Every structure is written in C-alpha cells, then in structure tokens.
Amino acid sequence: MLVKRLILVVISLVLGYGLTVLILITPLVNTNVEEYGGVYTFFTALSIACAIGVWLDKFMDTKILPE
User: Is the pLDDT of residue 67 over 90?
Assistant: First the structure.
C-alpha cells in the first residue's frame, strides 16, 4: 500500500508541474517559469497536484482520503 501511495504522490507532482508549465506557455498567458517566478510556480503546481491526487486516490484505491 505504501508503494501505491508513493507512486500516487510522484505521478501527481509530475503532472502538476507539467500542467503548470503547459498553462504558462499557452498564448493566453504567454510567459515562462522564470518570468512567473519560482514560488508562484511551486504553489500553482502544488495546488494542481493536490487536485490530481484526489482523483488518483479514488482510481488507484490507495485510501489516503477517508470515505
């Protein structure tokens, strides 16, 4: 169970950072990570990763969140 939970955390953090970078380079935002700032990038990626983690918890059946 611990391995599944660690995999969930790694997947959600990687997807959170990847989606943050993709959002930043879209023509609507049109910026990069250096201009956006490291702290803002970190917290944006963390919030997206938490949202992804909630969904992955259900589908991977890791039971991190209580029912």
Answer: no
pLDDT of 5-27, one tens digit each? 999 999 999 999 999 999 999 99
Contact 36, 24 (CB under 8 A): yes
10: tokens are 């790694």
Which sequence spans correspond to the domains of the chain? 2-60
Residue recorded with tokens 């169970």:
1
**What pLDDT, on the 0 to 100 scale, is given for residue 38?**
95
Kindly state the DSSP code that residue 31 receives in the 8-state scheme.
-
Q: Which positions ≥6 away from 8 have C-beta within 8 Å?
A: 53, 56, 57, 60, 62, 64
First to last CA, the chain: 17
pTM of the model: 0.90
Q: Find the length of the chain.
A: 67
